[in-house]
Protein backbone atom coordinates (compact mmCIF):
# COMPACT_ATOMS: atom_id res chain seq x y z
CA UNK A 1 0.00 0.00 0.00
CA UNK A 2 1.25 3.44 -0.81
CA UNK A 3 1.60 5.61 2.26
CA UNK A 4 -1.16 8.15 2.43
CA UNK A 5 1.42 10.33 4.08
CA UNK A 6 3.95 9.87 6.80
CA UNK A 7 5.28 11.77 9.76
CA UNK A 8 8.94 12.24 8.87
CA UNK A 9 7.93 13.68 5.48
CA UNK A 10 6.16 16.47 7.29
CA UNK A 11 9.38 17.44 9.03
CA UNK A 12 11.31 17.16 5.79
CA UNK A 13 8.80 19.40 4.00
CA UNK A 14 8.97 22.06 6.67
CA UNK A 15 12.73 21.81 6.64
CA UNK A 16 12.85 22.42 2.88
CA UNK A 17 10.62 25.44 3.29
CA UNK A 18 12.84 26.87 5.98
CA UNK A 19 15.97 26.55 3.89
CA UNK A 20 14.77 27.47 0.40
CA UNK A 21 11.75 29.72 0.44
CA UNK A 22 12.97 32.89 2.03
CA UNK A 23 9.76 34.94 1.53
CA UNK A 24 7.76 32.22 3.25
CA UNK A 25 10.26 32.06 6.08
CA UNK A 26 10.16 35.79 6.57
CA UNK A 27 6.35 35.93 6.50
CA UNK A 28 6.37 32.97 8.87
CA UNK A 29 8.76 34.79 11.18
CA UNK A 30 6.87 38.07 10.93
CA UNK A 31 3.32 36.81 11.32
CA UNK A 32 3.13 33.27 12.64
CA UNK A 33 5.98 33.06 15.13
CA UNK A 34 4.74 36.03 17.22
CA UNK A 35 1.35 34.31 17.43
CA UNK A 36 2.94 31.04 18.54
CA UNK A 37 5.06 32.91 21.07
CA UNK A 38 1.94 34.64 22.37
CA UNK A 39 0.19 31.27 22.64
CA UNK A 40 3.17 29.89 24.57
CA UNK A 41 3.19 32.89 26.93
CA UNK A 42 -0.52 32.41 27.58
CA UNK A 43 0.10 28.72 28.22
CA UNK A 44 2.73 29.68 30.79
CA UNK A 45 0.27 32.02 32.47
CA UNK A 46 -1.99 28.97 32.83
CA UNK A 47 -4.91 30.76 31.19
CA UNK A 48 -6.30 27.31 30.33
CA UNK A 49 -7.08 26.91 34.04
CA UNK A 50 -9.29 29.98 33.65
CA UNK A 51 -11.27 28.33 30.86
CA UNK A 52 -9.46 30.08 27.97
CA UNK A 53 -8.45 27.49 25.36
CA UNK A 54 -5.32 27.52 23.18
CA UNK A 55 -4.71 25.58 19.93
CA UNK A 56 -2.89 22.29 20.57
CA UNK A 57 -2.30 18.91 18.90
CA UNK A 58 -3.19 16.10 21.29
CA UNK A 59 -2.22 12.48 20.77
CA UNK A 60 -4.66 9.91 22.07
CA UNK A 61 -4.87 6.14 21.79
CA UNK A 62 -5.03 2.82 23.55
CA UNK A 63 -2.02 1.72 25.64
CA UNK A 64 1.03 0.78 23.54
CA UNK A 65 -0.70 1.78 20.28
CA UNK A 66 2.45 3.76 19.37
CA UNK A 67 1.61 7.34 20.37
CA UNK A 68 5.06 8.24 21.69
CA UNK A 69 6.66 6.55 18.68
CA UNK A 70 4.63 8.79 16.34
CA UNK A 71 5.56 11.94 18.24
CA UNK A 72 9.25 11.13 18.39
CA UNK A 73 9.40 10.64 14.63
CA UNK A 74 7.63 13.97 14.09
CA UNK A 75 9.98 15.74 16.50
CA UNK A 76 13.14 13.76 15.71
CA UNK A 77 13.70 13.45 19.48
CA UNK A 78 13.87 10.12 21.31
CA UNK A 79 11.03 9.56 23.75
CA UNK A 80 10.52 6.72 26.22
CA UNK A 81 8.73 3.88 24.37
CA UNK A 82 7.91 0.31 25.25
CA UNK A 83 5.44 -2.43 26.01
CA UNK A 84 3.17 -1.99 29.03
CA UNK A 85 2.42 1.44 30.46
CA UNK A 86 5.15 3.84 29.37
CA UNK A 87 3.87 7.43 29.23
CA UNK A 88 2.54 8.18 32.72
CA UNK A 89 2.12 11.97 32.75
CA UNK A 90 0.95 14.46 30.09
CA UNK A 91 4.07 15.40 28.11
CA UNK A 92 3.79 18.83 26.51
CA UNK A 93 6.31 18.98 23.64
CA UNK A 94 7.09 22.48 22.50
CA UNK A 95 9.06 22.39 19.27
CA UNK A 96 10.54 25.65 18.08
CA UNK A 97 12.69 26.41 15.07
CA UNK A 98 15.77 28.44 15.98
CA UNK A 99 18.42 29.64 13.54
CA UNK A 100 21.48 28.71 15.65
CA UNK A 101 23.01 25.30 14.80
CA UNK A 102 23.26 23.99 18.39
CA UNK A 103 19.95 22.57 19.61
CA UNK A 104 18.63 23.49 23.05
CA UNK A 105 16.63 20.85 24.93
CA UNK A 106 15.21 21.20 28.42
CA UNK A 107 12.42 19.97 30.68
CA UNK A 108 10.16 22.06 32.89
CA UNK A 109 8.23 20.47 35.75
CA UNK A 110 7.41 21.08 39.41
CA UNK A 111 8.62 24.69 39.03
CA UNK A 112 12.14 23.80 37.87
CA UNK A 113 14.09 23.57 34.61
CA UNK A 114 16.34 20.61 33.80
CA UNK A 115 18.70 20.97 30.85
CA UNK A 116 19.42 17.91 28.72
CA UNK A 117 20.30 17.13 25.10
CA UNK A 118 18.79 15.16 22.24
CA UNK A 119 20.66 11.96 23.05
CA UNK A 120 19.63 11.96 26.73
CA UNK A 121 16.10 13.39 26.40
CA UNK A 122 14.32 10.01 26.77
CA UNK A 123 16.23 9.18 29.97
CA UNK A 124 15.61 12.66 31.37
CA UNK A 125 11.86 12.30 30.65
CA UNK A 126 11.79 8.91 32.41
CA UNK A 127 13.54 10.36 35.49
CA UNK A 128 11.20 13.37 35.59
CA UNK A 129 8.18 11.04 35.19
CA UNK A 130 9.38 8.98 38.20
CA UNK A 131 9.72 12.19 40.18
CA UNK A 132 6.21 13.34 39.29
CA UNK A 133 4.27 10.05 39.31
CA UNK A 134 6.49 7.73 41.40
CA UNK A 135 8.65 4.95 40.03
CA UNK A 136 5.89 2.32 39.85
CA UNK A 137 3.14 2.12 37.25
CA UNK A 138 1.03 4.95 38.61
CA UNK A 139 0.07 8.03 36.60
CA UNK A 140 -0.31 11.74 37.37
CA UNK A 141 -2.05 14.63 35.65
CA UNK A 142 0.79 17.03 36.50
CA UNK A 143 2.23 17.96 33.09
CA UNK A 144 5.87 17.67 32.09
CA UNK A 145 7.03 20.15 29.43
CA UNK A 146 9.78 19.28 26.95
CA UNK A 147 11.13 22.28 25.03
CA UNK A 148 13.14 21.56 21.89
CA UNK A 149 14.71 24.51 20.07
CA UNK A 150 16.38 23.31 16.92
CA UNK A 151 17.19 24.49 13.42
CA UNK A 152 14.65 23.35 10.84
CA UNK A 153 11.96 21.81 13.05
CA UNK A 154 8.37 22.97 12.69
CA UNK A 155 6.96 25.26 15.38
CA UNK A 156 4.45 22.97 16.99
CA UNK A 157 3.13 22.14 20.42
CA UNK A 158 2.03 18.54 20.77
CA UNK A 159 0.83 16.69 23.85
CA UNK A 160 1.58 13.02 24.49
CA UNK A 161 -0.77 11.34 26.96
CA UNK A 162 -0.89 8.08 28.88
CA UNK A 163 -2.63 5.34 26.87
CA UNK A 164 -6.03 3.96 27.73
CA UNK A 165 -5.98 0.80 29.85
CA UNK A 166 -8.82 -0.96 31.65
CA UNK A 167 -7.43 -3.42 34.20
CA UNK A 168 -5.16 -2.17 37.01
CA UNK A 169 -1.76 -3.92 37.03
CA UNK A 170 1.05 -4.13 39.60
CA UNK A 171 -0.06 -1.71 42.25
CA UNK A 172 -2.03 0.61 39.96
CA UNK A 173 -5.06 2.09 41.70
CA UNK A 174 -8.44 0.45 41.09
CA UNK A 175 -9.63 3.58 39.28
CA UNK A 176 -6.73 3.70 36.78
CA UNK A 177 -9.19 3.64 33.83
CA UNK A 178 -11.15 6.59 35.21
CA UNK A 179 -7.93 8.50 35.98
CA UNK A 180 -6.55 8.06 32.46
CA UNK A 181 -9.78 8.77 30.61
CA UNK A 182 -10.25 11.82 32.85
CA UNK A 183 -6.86 13.23 31.80
CA UNK A 184 -7.51 12.47 28.13
CA UNK A 185 -10.94 14.08 28.17
CA UNK A 186 -9.49 17.24 29.74
CA UNK A 187 -7.05 17.59 26.81
CA UNK A 188 -9.29 16.55 23.88
CA UNK A 189 -12.49 18.34 24.90
CA UNK A 190 -11.46 21.94 23.98
CA UNK A 191 -12.61 22.67 20.45
CA UNK A 192 -9.19 24.17 19.74
CA UNK A 193 -7.51 20.75 20.18
CA UNK A 194 -6.66 18.76 17.07
CA UNK A 195 -6.97 15.09 18.00
CA UNK A 196 -4.35 12.69 16.59
CA UNK A 197 -6.05 9.36 17.20
CA UNK A 198 -3.32 6.71 17.15
CA UNK A 199 -4.63 3.28 16.12
CA UNK A 200 -2.65 0.07 15.74
CA UNK A 201 -3.14 -1.59 12.34
CA UNK A 202 -3.41 -4.90 14.21
CA UNK A 203 -6.79 -4.10 15.78
CA UNK A 204 -10.30 -3.50 14.45
CA UNK A 205 -10.82 0.24 14.67
CA UNK A 206 -14.43 0.11 15.96
CA UNK A 207 -13.11 -1.72 19.07
CA UNK A 208 -10.77 1.15 19.97
CA UNK A 209 -11.69 2.99 23.12
CA UNK A 210 -9.86 6.09 21.85
CA UNK A 211 -12.28 6.35 18.93
CA UNK A 212 -15.23 6.21 21.29
CA UNK A 213 -13.63 8.95 23.39
CA UNK A 214 -12.78 11.29 20.53
CA UNK A 215 -16.28 10.87 19.08
CA UNK A 216 -17.75 11.93 22.38
CA UNK A 217 -16.09 15.33 22.10
CA UNK A 218 -15.88 15.61 18.28
CA UNK A 219 -19.04 13.97 16.90
CA UNK A 220 -18.45 14.80 13.23
CA UNK A 221 -14.72 14.00 13.39
CA UNK A 222 -13.89 17.44 11.95
CA UNK A 223 -10.85 17.85 14.23
CA UNK A 224 -9.79 14.19 14.41
CA UNK A 225 -6.98 12.68 12.31
CA UNK A 226 -6.19 8.95 12.52
CA UNK A 227 -2.56 7.80 12.57
CA UNK A 228 -2.37 4.06 11.88
CA UNK A 229 0.79 2.53 13.38
CA UNK A 230 2.35 -0.95 13.13
CA UNK A 231 1.52 -1.16 9.40
CA UNK A 232 4.40 -3.67 9.21
CA UNK A 233 2.52 -6.06 11.51
CA UNK A 234 -0.71 -6.09 9.51
CA UNK A 235 -0.18 -4.85 5.95
CA UNK A 236 -2.83 -7.23 4.57
CA UNK A 237 -6.19 -5.52 4.14
CA UNK A 238 -4.98 -2.23 5.61
CA UNK A 239 -5.97 -0.17 2.58
CA UNK A 240 -9.50 -1.62 2.62
CA UNK A 241 -9.78 -0.99 6.34
CA UNK A 242 -8.71 2.63 6.03
CA UNK A 243 -10.79 3.25 2.90
CA UNK A 244 -13.93 1.86 4.58
CA UNK A 245 -13.64 4.53 7.30
CA UNK A 246 -16.16 2.66 9.47
CA UNK A 247 -15.42 4.93 12.40
CA UNK A 248 -15.91 8.24 10.58
CA UNK A 249 -12.56 10.02 10.92
CA UNK A 250 -13.08 13.53 9.55
CA UNK A 251 -9.51 14.52 8.72
CA UNK A 252 -8.45 11.17 7.19
CA UNK A 253 -5.82 8.53 7.88
CA UNK A 254 -2.01 8.55 7.90
CA UNK A 255 -0.42 5.07 7.85
CA UNK A 256 3.07 4.68 9.31
CA UNK A 257 5.64 2.15 10.39
CA UNK A 258 7.51 3.57 13.34
CA UNK A 259 11.08 3.10 14.48
CA UNK A 260 11.55 -0.17 16.35
CA UNK A 261 14.06 -0.62 19.19
CA UNK A 262 17.35 1.19 18.60
CA UNK A 263 16.79 1.67 14.86
CA UNK A 264 17.82 5.16 13.69
CA UNK A 265 15.12 7.51 12.39
CA UNK A 266 16.79 7.37 8.98
CA UNK A 267 16.79 3.55 8.83
CA UNK A 268 13.19 3.48 10.03
CA UNK A 269 12.13 5.79 7.21
CA UNK A 270 13.88 3.62 4.63
CA UNK A 271 12.17 0.51 6.06
CA UNK A 272 8.84 2.31 6.00
CA UNK A 273 9.26 3.41 2.37
CA UNK A 274 10.26 -0.14 1.44
CA UNK A 275 7.22 -1.60 3.18
CA UNK A 276 4.76 0.69 1.44
CA UNK A 277 6.49 0.23 -1.94
CA UNK A 278 6.24 -3.55 -1.57
CA UNK A 279 2.60 -3.40 -0.53
CA UNK A 280 1.59 -1.04 -3.35
CA UNK A 281 3.30 -3.29 -5.91
CA UNK A 282 1.48 -6.34 -4.59
CA UNK A 283 -1.82 -4.45 -4.78
CA UNK A 284 -1.26 -3.66 -8.46
CA UNK A 285 -0.52 -7.34 -9.29
N1 LIG B 1 6.42 -3.25 14.73
C1 LIG B 1 6.09 -2.04 15.14
N2 LIG B 1 6.17 -1.74 16.47
C2 LIG B 1 5.80 -0.48 16.85
C3 LIG B 1 5.35 0.50 15.94
N3 LIG B 1 5.05 1.63 16.63
C4 LIG B 1 5.29 1.35 17.93
N4 LIG B 1 5.76 0.09 18.08
C5 LIG B 1 6.15 -0.57 19.33
O1 LIG B 1 5.03 -0.62 20.21
C6 LIG B 1 5.46 -0.45 21.56
C7 LIG B 1 4.69 0.70 22.20
O2 LIG B 1 5.09 1.92 21.58
P1 LIG B 1 4.93 3.34 22.30
O3 LIG B 1 5.28 4.38 21.29
O4 LIG B 1 5.62 3.36 23.60
O5 LIG B 1 3.34 3.32 22.54
P2 LIG B 1 2.45 4.34 23.38
O6 LIG B 1 1.11 4.36 22.73
O7 LIG B 1 3.13 5.64 23.54
O8 LIG B 1 2.37 3.56 24.79
P3 LIG B 1 1.85 4.13 26.21
O9 LIG B 1 2.49 5.46 26.44
O10 LIG B 1 2.27 3.13 27.23
O11 LIG B 1 0.36 4.20 26.10
C8 LIG B 1 6.97 -0.20 21.53
O12 LIG B 1 7.61 -1.40 21.81
C9 LIG B 1 7.20 0.23 20.09
O13 LIG B 1 8.50 -0.07 19.61
C10 LIG B 1 5.30 0.17 14.54
O14 LIG B 1 4.92 0.97 13.66
N5 LIG B 1 5.69 -1.11 14.21
MG1 LIG C 1 3.60 6.67 25.23
TrEMBL record:
Coiled-coil portions: none
Sorted UniProt keywords: GTP-binding, Nucleotide-binding
Top-level taxonomic group: Eukaryota
Gene Ontology CC terms, in alphabetical order: cytoplasm; membrane; microtubule
Key word Nucleotide-binding present: yes
Domain Dynamin-type G positions: 51-285
Keyword Oxidoreductase in annotation: no
Molecular function GO labels: GTP binding; GTPase activity; microtubule binding
Membrane-spanning segments: none
PANTHER family registered for this protein in UniProt: DYNAMIN, DYNAMIN-RELATED PROTEIN 4C
Protein name: Dynamin-type G domain-containing protein
Amino acid sequence: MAPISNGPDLVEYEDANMENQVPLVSSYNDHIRPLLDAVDKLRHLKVMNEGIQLPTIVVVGDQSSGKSSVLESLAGINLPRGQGICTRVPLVMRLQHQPTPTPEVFLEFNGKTVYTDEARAADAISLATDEIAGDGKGISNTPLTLVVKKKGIPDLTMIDLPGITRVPVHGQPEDIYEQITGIITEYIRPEESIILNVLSATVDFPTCESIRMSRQVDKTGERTLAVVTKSDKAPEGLLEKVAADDVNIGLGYVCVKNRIGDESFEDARKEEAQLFKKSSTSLQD
